[in-house]
Amino acid sequence: MTDKYLITVLPKNEVSDPQGEAILDSAHALGYPEIRSIRAGRSFLIETDGDPNRIAEISDKLLANPIVERFEVKAL
Amino acid sequence: MNATQNKPTRAVKPLWQELGLTRGEYDHIVSLLGREPNETELGIYGVMWSEHCSYKNSRKLLSGLPTTGSHVLQGPGENAGVIALDENLAVCFKIESHNHPSAIEPYQGAATGVGGILRDIFAMGARPIALLDSLHFGDPHERGKCRERPGMAGSVDPESDRVATLVRGVVRGIADYGNCVGIPTVAGETRFDANYLGNPLVNVMAVGIVPRDRIMRARASGIGGRVLYYGGPTGRDGIHGATFSSETFEEGVEDKRSAVQIGDPFMEKKILEATLELIESDAVDAIQDMGAAGLTCSSCEMASRGETGIEIDLARVPLRAARMSPYEIMLSESQERMLAVVSPEKWEKAAAILAKWDMKAHDLGEIKPGRSMVVKRGDEICAEIPVPSLTDAAPLNSPAMREPDNREARLALHLDDIPEPADPGAVLLRLLDSPELCSRAWIWEQYDHMVGTSTALKTIGGDAAVLRVHGSEKAVAVSVDSCARAASLDPKTGAMLAVAESARNVACSGALPVAATNCCNFGNPNRPEIYWQLAQSIEGMSEACRALDTPITGGNVSLYNETDGEAISPTLTIGMLGILDASAHATGIALQAGNLFLIGSGAPSLAASEYLYQEHHRIAGRPAAPDFADERAIQKLLLAGIQGGLIRAAHDVSLGGIAVTLAEMARAGRMGIRVDLPGAERTDVALFGEGPGRVIVVVEEKDEEKIMELARKFATEIRKLGEAGGGELVMKPGIRIPMSEILAAGRDTFTKLFEKRGSR
Amino acid sequence: MRFAVVVFPGSNCDKDCVRALRDVMGQDVAEVWHTETSLSGFDAVVLPGGFSYGDYLRCGAIARFSKIMRAVKEHADRGGLVLGICNGFQILVEAHLLPGALIRNRSLKFMCRPVWLKRERRDSLFTARGEDFLRLPIAHGEGQYFIDAEGYRKLEDEGRIAYRYEAPPGIEQAENPNGSVGRIAGILNAKGNILGMMPHPERACEEFTGGVTHGRWIFESMIAHLTGERAARAGIAA
After folding, report:
1. Angle between helices B294-306 and B39-48 (to 10 degrees)
2. Cβ neighbours of C50 in B, within 8 Å
3. Is C152 helix (H, G, I), strand (E, B) or coil?
4. Which residues of A touch B760 (CB under 8 A)?
5. Facing residues of B729 across strands?
6. pLDDT tens, C179-200?
7. pLDDT of B228-245, one tens digit each?
8. C50: left (phi over 0), alpha (psi -120 to 50) or beta
9. What is the pLDDT of residue A15?
10. CA distances (Å), B201 to each of A43, B52, B532, B756, in order?
């Protein structure tokens, strides 16, 4: 049985995110002053036949760098 | 065997048109085959008879170029030209355009341009040591004035600044690709003019070093040789035009073909190392990259050069997308793919080398006797074409040409109409701050220009970059130049000026110019004025290269650079290669302690000058052609002076005239200057007048007599201008500026213009 | 001394490091492919710059899992010297052999230029030779050193900050080229036998490429330490 997961990796709140800030500036310039914050990250779509617990494991080990990033696993 | 069994379900007629073939060309194909071509076959003819592969509109003109010389080991016709460096090593180099892809997607377009030219170099067995770029963009001050076209960068937001978007994307694309592969980008030029707004030019040059006995050619040899495919998989990237194959109609959204080629520099790095290892271990007989027109062009050219036949099976091609048609597989321009010919007994060895670099060896087929190119998919024959009909029988056109009507009027320049500047110092600061003449550090600091530990640091940001060659006493110098402003007035003179300037640049860095590569960027050759520009430019290049003994060893032609009937200025980019006897002779432009001399017999003129454009908004006048005898005398003087240790810095007098040239030297050396300039009828001509045949050098006081003697020996003019030092830039007549202002001028121009926060 | 320069797919300063160590410093150098499992016989290991595995996930994140990295850790545990330059530094932090992380430059741009560094430690195995200010080239897009406040204090307290971006008095330099916490350019591990740094010493070993030769000081320090160690061992054996 193949399961699908979406893993979202974002910079931790205390870590600066120049990319997100630049995109925020751009959004403001384009006429979206109401947007208060943007954090830029990465996401991964994973298809697996195995134990769902191993998804969090690989996210922590490989996909995200826990020193500067946090991640979220969503089953699809 | 009957190749027509794969006949498409739809009418073929519109297809030849979409492929850019004419009715006459289509009829010729039918007569060559003795039958109607199927879709795949027509696609193959379409790309092989395109300008890019066949040079059908430019071949006649290019055939007059000088291509041989004492240094030339390989002229045009292979992946790149090769020049002898010393007894053991050779230099391989070539320039290529990626204009249209960069206009559509600046980041990927420029990145894949770098990838393509690098593959041309390492396919010859050469390890790339340097990249250069010649970039032309629209006027950065004319924001948002371009009519938006679908698919053009910036079209999402009509308010956005198209030039800035292009500059940022192109520079980042070149940087990310070159930096990742680890090839330093060491020199280049960046020009701005309104006529490039819709058609930016991205020309990239690569230089590599190859042992002379290991130069690899893209020539199929040995019947029975296996056709080896390695590198990235084949997807729908870069297949032009609309939908051709009936199958694709049923495909989902995600499978839509994309015209944008995506670069993978990590894969490039792996195929670079693997290719050099394959060649070094003598595991392959021929190699060619799959560039424009992909598998079609590479397989067909290999067979053509080797005078053999070839048979490939598309079922064995690794695919990235599902349900690709034979047409799509043959025409895909997916990047980072190589094709090689391997004799069967060496297959295992080649496969092992590829495995080391995490790549598979795909056996596509075989080199066959006869002259037929057979493309199968499993048992089904998709195409069967005589190879010579694709190459030797390609059309050769001689479009009509006509000199533009209004030319004489533009050549006229009456100086009485041009007021002399009241404050020449202010003019100088404005010029130094202008996009054309400001500091380029914003660009080259994004490029890793030092990786490889070959680059002479002091030549970065100067006239030409010098690279030492590991394993040789000698070093190479490289420069790219185009003189498009002058060429827009007089294409022939513009071409001669570009050759002369790039040769002079290379000589200023301590090298003897030995050979050149070129990129012809023009509009639609079917318009008589454009074809006239092309013919004139090539004639000028030919004359100049002959006179300066710098044969052309290869290059590329990019036509149809026009938007809504407006063509770009004729832009001939010259990539010049020079050789230094010793890397210790590398000379930069940065001012050193000593006295300043002007050498050469060139006379300054305001024709086509930067001053006239920036201050008086005019492009006019009759640009003077170089005096080649004097250019050679200047070269000899520079070489003798540099090799003899007399010349401590040298800078070609180019855009902005003597005033800007001196200011650039002062800026680079962070040192003031005090000079008296040669008199002219007007202050602006003396300070800002341009023209070939002038170089400024720095010589220590004790060596003055020796440099004078050299000038007498080589029969060129020399004149002392003044001395280096102090905290001011003083030029008589009319300029006295503190160095702090010179250092600040133009330092942040690019940052202000292009580095909008909120951009990618 | 015997140096190993580890080569990952995508390394691109490996040959530069080999040339600097062999041709300029006169050392015995071998390139070691990432699939090797042992580094025995080597006195020092260099993880060179480049874009290992294309830096596709995060810089150094994939290289960290290669076979050779276990050997690098064992080598360090034995007290051997490890120098990570640029991508090598990124790999060392991803492998948790050094603390913190290296993220995108504050400017969002790749940056290649010579910068001034100040030596913060004069007595480490990598910094004993040379002067307090060095001019070395940087060339990176992701060289902003990040560590939380507690971690930073720890680095400071333990004297593990080897270099900061700082120019000698009287010379103008942008305050912080990439936005690093505490202007950190290079750090040591607790034992002091691993140095990770963003600037490239191998590019400033000869005047031709670097303008200055300050990069040699780092290699000279390593060689001096190893020579002393070898002499001590020989003394004990005798």
Report:
1. 70
2. 182
3. helix
4. 22
5. B673, B737
6. 999 999 999 999 999 999 999 9
7. 999 999 988 777 533 333
8. left
9. 82
10. 35, 16, 20, 22
